Amino acid sequence: MLFSRGDALHFTYDSEHVQIEPWGPNALRVRATKEHTLPAENWALSLTPPSSSPSISIHDDHAEITNGSITATVSSRGKIIIRNSKGQRILEEYQRNRVDVEDPKCSALLVDAREFKPLLGGDYHLTYRLESVDRKEKIYGMGQYQQSFLDLKGLDLEMAQRNSQASVPFMLSSLGYGMLWNNPAVGRAVLGKNIMSFEARSTKVLDYWIVAGDSPARIVEAYADVTGKVPMMPEYGLGFWQCKLRYQTQEELLEVAREYRRRNLPLDVIVVDFFHWPKQGEWKFDPTYWEDPDAMIKELQSMNIELLVSVWPTVDKRSENYDYMLEHGMLIRQDRGLRVAMDFQGDTVHADFTNPAARDFVWKTAKKNYYDKGIKLFWLDEAEPEYNVYDFDIYRYHSGTVLSTGNAYPVDYARAFYEGMVKDGKQKDVCNLIRCAWAGSQKFGTLLWSGDIASSWGSFRDQFAAGLNVGIAGIPWWTTDIGCFCPVFRLHGHREPMQPQHGTTGGATCISGAPNEVWSYGEECYEIMKKYLLLRERLRDYVRGLMTQAHERGTPVIRTLFFEFPEDAECWEVEDQYLFGSKYLVAPVLYKGMEKRQVYLPKGAKWRRFDDGEVKDAEEFEGGKTVEVDCPLAVMPVFERV
């Protein structure tokens, strides 16, 4: 049965209920369930949709709902096709059965588009199947994955959170639409050339949001309008961040900061990494190694350097907070097996940040031991959360099973600190480093970094695709372990040989790697790094402008070429260059021994070599051509738009 109620179009048949409604300009939200009522959760979407006035028409064999430039048609037997304002299909359900014998795709295969397979306990294993409308379609976004493909069409992606993998299930299509899979269940996305499908391993509802737009920028910014935008990046986030695994003592860290100042090098943030605490789950400095944090913070601030401290969600069973958190239901539960989620440096269970009580308790503890001392940044590590074994079917959160709600855990982890810091009143704009994200994380001041990755050329290429795709997926603040032309300029790493152990208590057995400050790689490398440190500082005003765009519109800081030049067909083919904002085209060296490389200059603009900012009287090039450039060790190929 097809009918309208309010601003929504409904289809019901047997136990299934489908609802399609406007959710922002040129956008629709589609939900389906076999429950008696639609579940109330909005997950990543804004609580109330931006106002729209749809047009709904009901006919004998179909119904239509139009919202601006997008129209959904539902047949009398429930099949959904979505078109843009030109009448072009952008989405069509894949249905191969005999439910509708008048459907040209009527088939004896008996495959449903919306398959709700019942599970014991009341949930369903949901599979949603879509036609591959155009085999030449290109797809981007979906989060951060450790693979080198920028175009995701043809890929099989696990929708689950792991160390260095962040599922953020918004995709941008070259066909002129964006789609958010608005379901935090563990699952799978297959973006095939013959069929596309989305799976949720345990859920009660199909829920997605789709928008039509005439440019990638408008689509991504429309998505940001309904899921939230980052705050304004604080001033200290625009400069250089020094980090390593790990500074073991207060004096070691302070001496590094002093050396940066002695050398007159830019430094805005320095990092205290993990195991500066007595035990996991105590969220405080160990006085054995950090004897006077107040004095340390005061000295750093006198040098205009902010301190960032690492926080882990793990709670050691021997920690002072374990019994209280266990008694009050603040820890992740297990349906079976020994209750140890990780055994790194102790038997630990994670704090359950989907529980408001746990968010409040951990924040108040961190506030007393860190924030009240003047610390303005937190490193929310282990945010997936990480397990010794990713047996997602074992664990259960306050919000539900991990299979049904687990991907949203990093959102609530970020939310705990963001809401605490804002509520305290001392900070308006919040930026916290984090190791994982889901749709909507950005509105809680999330700066995603790409996790514990290898130091290899292959891994470097993976980060290239990861950073660009996660920006399209709505997370504009992103960084890997180094990069002058990353959104945030942070150095991190773990080098051999290992350093001597300091002490025997607390986190002492988690020893440090070799020095990784910019002067630690030899004089030749130091001069190169120094040059780019100073260049980034000269670009500070420009970077601030990019952060303003991200804050106001949700625009990525680093961008694919087609994001700025969608009419240039060649820009959709380039996968080894990117734009830092709209002005600088970056063509990094991605392979060992590369001494020359080809650089495509987008059509519709003029370009000249920029490199380290010191190129004089550089030749100007018309866009729409490929040039060959030298790649000496000391120079990264960069072009400036003129």
TrEMBL record:
SUPFAM superfamilies: (Trans)glycosidases, Galactose mutarotase-like, Glycosyl hydrolase domain
Residues annotated as domain Glycosyl hydrolase family 31 C-terminal: 554-641
Listed Gene3D superfamilies: Glycosidases, glycosyl hydrolase (family 31), Golgi alpha-mannosidase II
Ranges where the Glycoside hydrolase family 31 TIM barrel domain occurs: 231-543
Domain spans labelled Glycoside hydrolase family 31 N-terminal: 18-185
Keywords per UniProt: Glycosidase, Hydrolase
InterPro entries referenced in this protein's UniProt entry, alphabetically: Gal_mutarotase_sf_dom, GH, Glyco_hydro_31_C, Glyco_hydro_31_N_dom, Glyco_hydro_31_TIM, Glyco_hydro_b, Glycosyl_Hydrolase_31
Pfam families, A to Z: Gal_mutarotas_2, Glyco_hydro_31_2nd, Glyco_hydro_31_3rd
Top-level taxon of origin: Eukaryota
A GO molecular-function annotation: carbohydrate binding
GO terms under biological process: carbohydrate metabolic process
Family note: Belongs to the glycosyl hydrolase 31 family.
Protein name per its UniProtKB record: Alpha-D-xyloside xylohydrolase
Organism: Vermiconidia calcicola
